[in-house]
Automatic annotation (TrEMBL):
The gene is hisC. Its EC number is 2.6.1.9. Its cofactor is pyridoxal 5'-phosphate. This is Histidinol-phosphate aminotransferase. Residues 42-344 form the Aminotransferase class I/classII large domain. The lineage of its organism: Bacteria, Pseudomonadati, Bacteroidota, Bacteroidia, Bacteroidales.
Length: 349
């Protein structure tokens, strides 16, 4: 066989993978303000020698009580990305069905769809980054099986109105996935309470952000028991390692600590919001209900490169629709945020 790449499925050969800023640099001692993690280290890994419970029964009971749902309405995945992929694989027929997204938004929806040879219908958010539900519902095609709504939205930081989400849930002939990765920073905006009312609703949440467990890779899907049963049928048997489950149980037993960090992060977000507005090369700091800020600048690439040279990693989102010359900056520790501001003060632009 001279060229093994000829065996690759065409949609995989042409796939543009999800890009992480961590792949764009090497070295240690970086200030990492690019991936929307919790900057505070909370737990230590524990050694383990046996396979974990494939359905995570015990920890599901704890989570279900916190979320106000039944354990059978809960799927635990290797990050919420696993749930995104499983939803598309389970409910979309390759080469015929499609998903719908509202741009700009989280990139993995399109990546997972493309990997599974599923088309992507893209609908632009309004200038205020809100969904135009009437326009969407008038234009969406019958081939759309799954609609993804990131709420609060990444990279814009804003949330959508309950009424808009309910309108789409009521009128769309398919599943609606509301990705609440950042919901702990604005918990009153969660739509988990709608799961029992709308059988086509799937809510995604994660422990990677507010809970500070990005390295443990634990995400949730909350839906009716029929959907959860299908996801469990397709997932890998031991998709969550026992060390990660132990770390999760430790975290769940200390919810007060998580709430303390949320308060600190949201306070730092406001401080960072005010300080970033002082710079002449920053023309807009968008309001945020997440743990990051979207910042419009006069030259995003130059600022991004300058900060990277100073060991500060942010995300350049300029290639996203409606995000020309925009950087996304994760809220770091007080010390990290201050270093960012002091570094920007030395930028001549």
């Amino acid at each position: 066989m001279e060229n093994v790449t000829s065996l690759v499925r065409p949609n995989i050969a042409s796939l543009k993978p999800y890009s992480s800023a961590r792949s764009e640099f090497t070295g240690e001692n970086k200030i990492l303000l690019d991936a929307n993690e919790n900057p505070f280290e909370l737990w230590e890994m524990e050694k383990i020698n046996r396979y974990p419970d494939p359905l995570q029964t015990n920890v599901k009971q704890i989570i279900a009580q916190i979320k106000g749902i039944k354990p059978e309405q809960l799927f635990i995945g290797n990050g919420s990305d696993e749930a995104v992929d499983l939803i598309i694989r389970c409910f979309c027929e390759p080469a015929s069905d499609r998903i719908a997204i509202f741009e700009p938004t989280y990139g993995m929806y399109s990546v997972c769809a493309t990997i599974n040879n599923i088309g992507v219908e893209k609908y632009l958010l309004k200038d205020d980054f809100c969904i135009d539900a009437d326009s969407f519902l008038n234009r969406v095609t019958k081939d759309v099986k799954v609609v993804f709504i990131c709420n609060p939205n990444n990279p814009t930081g804003n949330s959508q109105k309950f009424g808009v989400i309910e309108q789409i849930l009521s009128e769309i002939n398919g599943l609606v996935v509301v990705d609440e990765a950042y919901i702990d920073f604005c918990s009153d905006k969660s739509v988990v309470s709608l799961v029992n009312r709308y059988p086509n609703l799937i809510v995604l949440q994660t422990f990677s952000k507010a809970w500070g467990l990005a390295g443990a890779r634990i995400g949730l899907a909350i839906a009716n028991r029929q959907i959860i049963s299908i996801l469990n049928r397709v997932k890998f048997p031991y998709n969550i390692g026992k060390p990660s489950l132990q770390i999760l149980k430790n975290s769940l037993s200390n919810k007060a600590l998580m709430e303390k960090f949320i308060a600190q992060i949201t306070g730092e977000r406001q401080n960072l919001y005010e300080q970033l507005k002082q710079f002449s090369f920053i023309t807009m700091v968008y309001p945020s209900e997440a743990n990051f800020l979207l910042v419009k600048t006069t030259n995003a690439q130059k600022i991004y490169t300058y900060l990277l040279d100073k060991n500060i990693v942010v995300r350049n989102r300029s290639h996203e629709p409606l995000c020309s010359n925009c950087l996304r900056i994760t809220v770091g520790t007080p010390a990290e945020n201050q270093i960012l501001i002091e570094t920007l003060k030395k930028l001549n632009l």
